[in-house]
Amino acid sequence: MGAFHSNPAEQTYRDLAEKTGFSVEQIWILHNRFKQLSHDEEMLRRDDFKAIPDLACNPIRSQIIEAFFDQRNFQTNSDGTAHEIGFEEFLTVMSYFRPPSLNMTQEEKEDLRRAKLRFLFNMHDTDNDGTITLEEYRHVVEELLSRSGAIGQETAKGITDAAMLEVASTSVGHMGPDDVYEGITFEHFLKILKGIEIESRMHIRFLNMDTTVLCK
Amino acid sequence: MTSRAMTLAGLFLLLLTPGTGGSQVPGTDGAGDHGGPHGLDGHGANATNKAFPVLSFDYKHVQMPFEISLWVLLASLMKLGFHLIPRLSSIVPESCLLIVVGLLVGGLIRVVGEDPPILGSQLFFLCLLPPIILDAGYFLPIRPFTENVGTILMFAVVGTLWNAFFVGGLLYGVCQLEGTHLGRVDLMACLLFGSIISAVDPVAVLAVFEEIHINELLHILVFGESLLNDAVTVVLYHLFEEFAAAGGVTIKDVFLGIVCFLVVALGGILVGAIYGVLAAFTSRFTSHTRVIEPLFVFLYSYMAYLSAEVFHLSGIMALIACGAVMRPYVEANISHKSHTTIKYFLKMWSSVSETLIFIFLGVSTVAGQHHWNWTFVICTVILCLVARVLGVVGLTFMINKFRIVKLTTKDQFIIAYGGLRGAIAFSLGYLLDKVHFPMRDMFLTAIITVIFFTVFVQGMTIRPLVDLLAVKKKQETKRSINEEIHTQFLDHLLTGIEDICGHYGHHHWKDKLNRFNKKYVKKCLIAGERSKEPQLIAFYHKMEMKQAIELVESGGGVKIPSAMPSTVSMQNIQPKKPTERALPQLSKSREEEIRKILRTNLQKTRQRLRSYNRHTLVADPYEDGWNDMFLKRRRVMELGKKISELNNYLTVPAPAPDSPTMARARLASEFQPLYIKPKSDSIPTIQVDLASPQSPDSVNMVDEFNKPSKPTEAEEEEGLMMKAPSSSADQKERKRDKEDGVEQQRLARCLSDPGPSAEDDEDEPFLP
């Protein structure tokens, strides 16, 4: 990218780069986008997200927006939801979508994987009790099928039940007829999604984001 | 005319005098020589009464079809034989064995004194190659292919070009050396030879890679490359052929060559896509003539291939495009029987084709005239190898900058090592005009040597090398519903994030394409309600069906399918209800009730026996039972609460009867044989009638078991394993009471044959 004049912002960029792992250029581009979305304000609100036209036809739109305001994703050991977020939080949430770099050790890859799956888990676990209950999972599936009308809603229940059954079977194995499976814990969640290579699939190519494209 | 009459008269006469006769040729028009005079002789004043030929030998009449059939039979028997010797097929890949057989057969024919046939280019390109390519294209795994299409194209286009020029150029240099006596071979001829020999062959790659089961990524990379480099090969071949004939080459020609390449590739794809859409559209209306559905698929694809060949476009790419485009829509429209037919026929034809190709390669080696030139041949082999390795390494270095999942050295080795040459190179060489290319025989010899080397040496050693290098093998695990949910979820999530970033990336366009497909294309090309079914539901229904079938096969009864070996069941998941206590096990009275209910149900769904007639193959039950299905569904809904008591199984609402997933799942289940075990009285057994729903035999049996019973409210136990939707007797799954051994035998007899193991991932929808 072109040369950006050095200003106090640059120092903050460098700090952010260290914290989130983005390059300074990428942070600069994202900052431009942030300013565009928030109409040059300091903080971003939910309405700003809802104003993005392309997002309107996404079935899980509300969940994505909530994820940005979920304090569990800010890596600050707090929870609850925020009303508005600053650029740093925006960047932190975005950093969950970085691809793995070439020279990562196996451990680092594992950590990255856990972090991404934790993000997904937080998206599902809306009441923050550490487990995804049947109701919450059902809500997820219903949202996914929300564009499919009545057929979707009927089968959502069946699909959820089958999915929970599968998790319970693979994670717990044997349960007596009186035991109740409370919900999917994070460890179970990791286990059932072992087949998907999250670290390589859950990423956005930040490589060539053109600023001209961002103007909408 | 008169000679005919005379022949007939003569025949009548000769009937009276038995004995051996000369060879009569009844029915031939120009029979003046044979039939007439003989008849005349026999009838006329000839004293020697020629006996009527009870047995005559007339080979010329059937020679062509007979020999073709003999060859195909030989190929099939060979294939059979190899698999009877297990040790052999695990060491030596099938392709090698077949070439050896071809050599033997060719040698045999030579010894006998005949001229062994050569693999003619016409025969090869028009008859033997299309089935293999169609099979590959129709069952191409779309998702891995589109994810890696950039890499594949790089290898196919740039890699092949590099190979062609490297080999051709250096060979020319070698030819120019003193002492090789190859001075006649000019640059154009060398480059032409380079372009022929440089293309990786899909047939050979398929033959070898099928047996080693490497991971999906490598498989699709090498295989995709072998398919897509056809365009490059076609262009280069024609280009250099023209140049060699014309003499010189200018910049304009080079430029035209590039344009030609684009036209060939894109034109081929366009032709294929058009035919694919036509086929999909036609299949929308075939609901009344199910018998010829597979024929449409084959015909349209073949026409696509031939049409592309007319314009010298890339026939292979047309075929692939046609198969890939039509598949999702055709599968949603056709009956499951047609689907099975298509699958079986494609596999059969491609298998036979492949076998024949390799055998013929062996025979052609013996048959052809060879001109062995040590320098040329050895240099060719070495240069091919070197070019391949350099090309792969260089390209991977560049590609890895853009890939997320980088290609490791091991991957590169396998890709380089998997670049096998095959019969396409041979046929292209065979097509060369002897007049323009006097060194054709030398070329052919070199081509055959390279083919032999790659197939034998590389083909045989790749399996131990794969094991040695511990290359990741194909994952045999089935997709779980959770993975499917999350794959979809991720797709939408990433699209959303891209939109937030304002970045029109990969996911954004894919999402747009999906929405376009759903909104417009599916409505046009898919008949009826099936056009609206979302993919997650499709997957889910398919999975249900498979589980249901598995449950039945495991002996039925109140068991959870073996796929989930645990005692977890629905009651563990549902939050504890304060009211009624859930029953842990079906009580005997319950079972009686269930049995009673089902019996009454069955009685209401009689169906007439229809005779089997080519023209009136029993229609799809979906159409017939539509209304009944609606009624049933409503009743089922009402029963929902009652069923939840019996929550030993998944509670599953019935899938829509005409959902393509039912069809697909049926297909998957069709291959599993049904094992009948003797049942005890107490357990309600689930017997799945895997005979096609349309088979009259199965229907008959159902009727036989109907005992008069009280007409209770026709209820279906929704909770007890997945029930089929339609009301008519031809439901796939049903709980029945079968203690009778006779019925069991009858049931066994009307099962469809268990076919080859069903592959799970073939039925992946388009753009998942």
From TrEMBL, chain B:
It is found in: Basolateral cell membrane. GO terms for cellular component: basolateral plasma membrane. Residues 1-22 form the signal peptide. It is a multi-pass membrane protein. Residues 704-713, 730-743 have a biased composition (Basic and acidic residues). One of its GO terms (molecular function) is calmodulin binding. Residues 758-768 have a biased composition (Acidic residues). InterPro entries: Cation/H_exchanger_CPA1, Cation/H_exchanger_TM, NaH_exchanger, NHE-1-like, NHE_CaM-bd. The keyword Cell membrane applies. Keywords: Antiport, Calmodulin-binding, Cell membrane, Glycoprotein, Ion transport, Lipoprotein, Membrane, Palmitate, Phosphoprotein, Signal, Sodium, Sodium transport, Transmembrane, Transmembrane helix, Transport, Ubl conjugation. Its main location: membrane. Residues 563-664 form the Sodium/hydrogen exchanger regulatory region domain. The chain crosses the membrane at residues 68-85, 97-113, 119-140, 152-174, 186-208, 220-240, 255-281, 351-368, 374-400, 412-431, 443-466. One of its GO terms (biological process) is regulation of intracellular pH. Residues 691-768 are annotated as: Disordered. Residues 73-466 form the Cation/H+ exchanger transmembrane domain. It comes from the Eukaryota. It catalyses: Na(+)(in) + H(+)(out) = Na(+)(out) + H(+)(in); Li(+)(in) + Na(+)(out) = Li(+)(out) + Na(+)(in); Li(+)(out) + H(+)(in) = Li(+)(in) + H(+)(out). Coiled coil: none annotated. Belongs to the monovalent cation:proton antiporter 1 (CPA1) transporter (TC 2.A.36) family. This is Sodium/hydrogen exchanger.
